[in-house]
Write a structure and sequence with these properties.
Length: about 220
Amino acid sequence: MAAALGACFLVLLVLVALRWHPLITVDGGISRTTHRWAVGDHAVTRVFRVLTDWVWDPTTMRLVCAAAAVWLVWRRAAWWTALWLAITCAVATLVQQAVKSAVGRPRPVWPDPVDSAHYAAFPSGHAMTATVVCGLLLWLLHRHGPRPALWRAAVTAAVVSVLGVGVTRVWLGVHWPSDVLGGWLAGAALVAAAVTVHEWPRAGGTRPSRGRWSPGA
């Protein structure tokens, strides 16, 4: 799964770097339409700005991840899992910034912008960070064996967050749609790779428990 998602991301990265005309055309068409909607619907735009700047902001997502890591240590004494969680989030940030610098894709420019953002556009940091954090936390929750109601609520919150942050970034005119897709693909690939690392046989050839966490899980 990690290899397949990573390959898809690399293909998209190459197309973006080469400014493949069909991709640029689709990006431009969608972005012009959503920007027109954003300029015309001030109420939705204000809500989307709050969501993207405070609820689904990468800093907020990383704080949620940090809180989960603290909980793992405090309540479960799961030092390895907490460290794995923190390292994965840090690696995601480094990968995101490295790709942004390497590709250097300009963000959309509008004569009447409704929001602003800094640094290069590809991939979307908001989309990638939300995907990584939600993906990791969902996987950890699944290992814990949650009640069905809790699991459904968590999946719903994760899906709404990951898809929602992508919609807000395009709506606000600070990312092209392919930037968001790139963030989703890169984030999902990183989650799949991180899960593989966590489940890899460790000392003594043992694997982490697939059921409830043991104290050292």
